[in-house]
Write a structure and sequence with these properties.
The complex is a heterotrimer. By secondary structure, chain B is α/β, with parallel strands linked by helices. Chain B contains nine helices and nine strands. Chain C contains seven helices and twelve strands. In chain C, strands 1-9-8-5-4-2-3 form a seven-stranded mixed β-sheet. Chain C has a three-stranded antiparallel β-sheet with strand order 7-6-10. In chain C, β11 (248-252) and β12 (259-263) form a beta hairpin. The interface between A and B is large, with 42 and 45 residues.
Chain lengths: 276, 255, 277
């Protein structure tokens, strides 16, 4: 029996992030590392600061203080020349300037919004939604864009024959799957998800959860997942961070947090879950 | 003769050492109630053996398995895995390192099936192989072989196990636990809700795992099964105290 | 001069606009904001183009004004009269004779020459506006060259009609950097933007933006590899001059379905007829 290789490279190094809108509003002194291939769940009730933290991590909102360091490793496919010069480098998300930050978000990161309307262009076809980032990266072959679009629709269990339909003709669950296809088509290394199954019917949630698990495994994604739903966290996340009033009260393996919670608040949260 | 020697050699290798393990639950909601569930537990587990935890029912033998699998935190004491190329301390292992450990080293057959709803039984079973990058057709073939051996009717394979009977769910769970052939396997009453025929299949699976050199730590209430699989018994009444807080166990049926 | 400063605008305003034009020429395709003035005509009638023309016009310049290729339509006639009155400049209908040509929605068929300036009237200068209502965001998109959405628009055309159905205001990329709205000229005219010896200036009065294509600048129409940019073509020739290579307007001649196709560029058509005759 050989020792397995357990160390994984650090992808995201979050150092002492604070973003406060008022006392205990926002997030404060957040420190953690995300390793390649890990799914980290951030759980907490509404107002706990988890969404603010996600916005800061995902490059959408600068923190009051602290750093979000993205560690890139050799051998990654990077389309942006400016970025590839810095392969192997640690990129400080809010020190690299807006142009490079946006390029990074576009080329190597992905964001799945809770509400698919925030992540999709509702007026343009499913195919164009999936293809937009590829076109932004310079793909100029309509036939190939379309083939890729249909391939991704199959991947997220959407009927490829609906490639020319606008998302507004889709159900909520289908819109969410389309958003996921649009996000993953560029093969990001790091994906942020904000309540990806929130607002969906329970029956639709289950299929989506399974799909997300499969995609994470197949694509080797690293994910930061924000959710208030502990059942979703249990099924998707390897590791959890519990937030309350802007601060992290407990972190650990998902099973440890849910089965052996240490902090008073985590115990309250875990014991408040309804079981059918 | 030669193979006998190599098997007995493999069997003598310690795979797991537990030293002075303590576990206490602190329940904040009940005025800081402290429950001691484990005191000074030590054991050694070798390759190719099945060590069965003995002790009266309900004292929380599962707690030990959960600590070994990373479900429960290790408050005090030391858990070490022994690999051919060195030892690994689990009590100080960072959280992220557990993912790989569970995928490749420590397998766990729990009492209850906890899976994504609406996923077909065969997909549930093959997932541990897919997680290691095994090709899908091969994973499916092995999952189907196991389900067939466990006499799960073929018409159920493509159905999600959520609506299955207790015994059927248990067999899906066993197949999922055994398919990965982890070198260290934790068995929490795998035969509890099975009929005699299927109990025999599980016993055969355990014996085959032993032959592979798998180190197993198990809980079996059924005395007949216990006698047929146990190489050693570990009496725990002196080390285990009370039940862990109840809400946790009831939550296991969630999803 | 009837109480007006030369060319209607005061010298300070003209200087301000000329500074803007210098910047626009220095950054081809980039939209420069300018302090647009109220002009004695409503928005949509070419107030942007008129302010640019007023700022660059010299007393010796010869001015031509066209509207959809014609010198004799209301818009062209009134702007031409405006400058005759407030600047006293000589005007012409001959493309070849003009120093400055103000145009609405066409580029003359007669090839432009070095030294000429073409001034376009622009209703909506922002090519990204259709998808992004925020000016702050569109400026950022230009700054960071985030132009994926431009191809989204063309993609949608092909998905819906089987070909790129955009026929006018067809977006271009200038000098391999800025995506630009060439104003509502037919895409037939897009190739004339590329590597032109003339200076092209664009003025949007309502939105107070100006931009430019300096002479001999590379201007590409956006397209796909498997759906390359194409210009319109007609099966008919011009019914008046017989041209088989100019942009044609369809003219209804009676209420019994009678129609004919004629050159939209009136000067070009007349010149050809003069030569033929």
């Amino acid at each position: 029996m050989k020792k397995p290789r357990l160390t994984r490279p650090v992808l995201l190094d979050v150092r002492d992030i604070t973003r406060l809108y008022g006392p205990a509003k926002g997030c404060e002194a957040i420190d953690f590392q995300l390793h390649a291939g890990e799914v980290l769940g951030i759980v907490g009730e509404s107002g706990s600061g988890k969404s603010t933290l996600l916005r800061v991590l995902a490059g959408l909102e600068a923190p009051d203080s602290g750093n979000v360091i993205y560690r890139r490793h050799a051998g990654q496919t990077v389309l942006d020349e400016d970025l590839s010069e810095n392969a192997d480098a640690a990129l400080d998300l809010y020190a690299i300037g807006e142009a490079r930050r946006r390029a990074l978000l576009r080329l190597e990161w992905g964001l799945v919004h809770q509400n698919p309307r925030d992540g999709l262009r509702m007026g343009v076809s499913a195919g164009a939604n999936i293809g937009e980032q590829l076109m932004a990266q310079g793909q100029r072959h309509y036939g190939q864009l379309r083939a890729t679009g249909q391939e991704w629709m199959r991947q997220v269990e959407l009927d490829p024959s609906r490639i020319d339909d606008a998302p507004r003709t889709f159900s909520g669950g289908m819109q969410q799957r389309l958003q996921i296809a649009r996000t993953l088509v560029t093969q990001p290394r790091l994906v942020f998800m904000d309540e990806p199954t929130g607002g969906l019917d329970v029956s639709v949630q289950a299929r989506l959860l399974d799909m997300l698990r499969t995609l994470v495994r197949q694509l080797g994604l690293s994910v930061v997942l924000v959710t208030h739903d502990l059942a979703v966290a249990r099924l998707l996340a390897h590791r959890l961070m519990v937030m309350r009033r802007g601060q992290v009260v407990e972190t650990g393996l998902t099973d440890q947090i849910l089965d052996d919670p240490q902090h008073e608040y985590t115990q309250l949260l875990v014991s408040s879950v309804l079981t059918p | 003769m030669l193979s006998e020697t190599s098997v007995s050699h493999t069997r003598s290798l310690p795979r797991l050492t537990v030293d002075g393990l303590h576990k206490q639950f602190l329940i904040h909601g009940q005025g800081g109630l402290e429950i001691d569930v484990m005191r000074d537990l030590s054991l050694t587990l070798h390759a190719g053996e099945c060590l069965v935890l003995a002790g009266r029912s309900g004292i929380g033998k599962s707690t030990l398995l959960k600590m070994l699998f990373g479900d429960y935190r290790i408050d005090q004491g030391r858990i070490r895995l022994h690999f051919d190329d060195g030892d690994l301390d689990l009590d100080t292992l960072p959280a992220y390192a557990w993912h790989g450990l569970r995928r490749d080293v420590i397998g766990y057959v729990s009492q209850f099936l906890r899976v994504v709803p609406r996923v077909a039984a065969v997909d549930v079973v093959m997932e541990p192989l897919l997680a290691r990058g095994t090709d899908e057709a091969e994973s499916r073939r092995r999952a189907e072989t196991l389900l067939a051996r466990l006499n799960l009717p073929e018409r159920l394979w493509q159905l999600p196990p959520g609506t299955f009977s207790g015994g059927e769910q248990q067999r899906v769970n066993i197949a999922r636990g055994f398919i990965g052939e982890h070198p260290l396997l934790l068995l929490d009453e795998p035969t509890a809700s099975l009929d005699a025929a299927n109990r025999d299949v599980v016993i055969a699976l355990i014996n085959e795992a032993k032959a592979r050199g798998t180190a197993m730590l198990g809980i079996f209430h059924d005395e007949d099964v216990r006698e047929r699989v146990a190489d050693r018994l570990l009496p725990l009444d002196g080390s285990l105290g009370a039940m862990p807080p109840q809400p946790k166990d009831s939550r296991e049926t969630l999803s | 001069m009837n109480g007006y400063n030369f060319a209607y605008l005061d010298e300070q305003t003209k200087r301000m606009i000329r500074r803007g034009l210098l910047k626009a020429v220095a950054i081809p395709g980039y939209q420069v904001p300018f302090g647009g003035r109220e002009m004695p005509m409503p928005y949509g009638w070419g107030t942007g183009g008129v302010q640019l023309t007023a700022s660059i016009l010299g007393a010796d310049d010869i001015l031509k004004v066209i509207d959809q290729g014609a010198d004799d339509t209301t818009n062209a006639v009134s702007i031409r009269h405006f400058f005759q009155r407030v600047a006293g400049v000589e005007t012409t209908t001959a493309t070849i004779a003009a120093d400055v040509i103000q145009t609405r929605h066409r580029i003359p068929e007669t090839p432009l020459r070095s030294g000429q300036i073409l001034v376009f009237q622009v209703p909506i200068p922002e090519p990204l506006r259709f998808i992004e209502p925020s000016e702050q965001e569109t400026r950022l998109m230009h700054a960071l060259e985030e132009y994926g959405v431009m191809h989204v628009k063309l993609y949608e055309d092909i998905a819906r009609y089987g070909h790129i159905a955009t026929t006018y205001a067809y977006p271009v990329k200038v000098d391999d950097r800025y995506v630009m709205d060439p104003s509502p000229i037919p895409k037939f005219d897009n190739p004339k933007l590329n590597d032109s010896p003339a200076l092209m200036l664009f003025g949007a009065g309502r939105e107070k933006r100006l931009y430019a294509i300096p002479p001999y600048t590379r201007v590409e129409s956006l397209d796909f590899e498997d759906h390359p940019f194409e210009i319109q073509s007609w099966e008919e020739n011009c019914a008046l001059c017989g041209s088989d290579h100019s942009y044609l307007d369809e003219v209804i001649t009676d209420d019994k379905g009678g129609r004919m196709f004629v050159c939209s560029d009136t000067d070009y058509c007349q010149t050809r007829r003069g030569e033929v005759a």
